[in-house]
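Supplementary notes for students who missed Thursday's class. We covered one full example, reproduced here. Read the sequence, then the structure, then the short commentary at the end.
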Amino acid sequence: MNSNEIFSRLEGLMKKLSMSSERGSYTRAEMKAYAAGIALAAENMERVLKNLFIDTAEKDGIALFLSMINENPAQTESESKQLIIDTVSNQMQIYKKSEFDSLVASLGVFGESTYITDDNIITLYYTGLVDMPCFKDVSDLCANHIPCFSQISMASEGVQFFVWEKLALPWFKLDSVKLPFYVLDSM
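Structure (token representation):
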């Protein structure tokens, strides 16, 4: 649905409500703006729905799926889609909460873990040092043991700038652990 169609519907609604939408009026200009915004939102929602499933996903959607499973694109879109299906079906692990908690505890840098099923968010309470070995452990946990549809959140006070400064990590070393910024930011 384009903005002209939406505007026509809004204009019809305004007439039914006995509200003026004459040319040059503020009401008409506001309705045009609403129509443009609604059309943009509808277009974005349509794109999201299209990319929600691997079968109908386009270039951007396929790239997002690949990034969630740490795979590189194949030669063609259809090969990339097949790679996603194969990787997810062959490598996904389902843990009981107790198994996941044991895995997290084995790293030695986290306190208790909490899995919030309604939001698909795994919250880990970070208690270790902030250094490269820790980043690698957290990166391994994210890449290999956390389902791609979950979000990891480190429930701590946050690292103050002087701690990052003291680490003196070049960007390429920090990038090598492949942790999303929101994970680093919440440590």
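Commentary. The mean pLDDT is 76. The first strand starts at residue 110 and ends at 116. If anything here is unclear, bring it to office hours.
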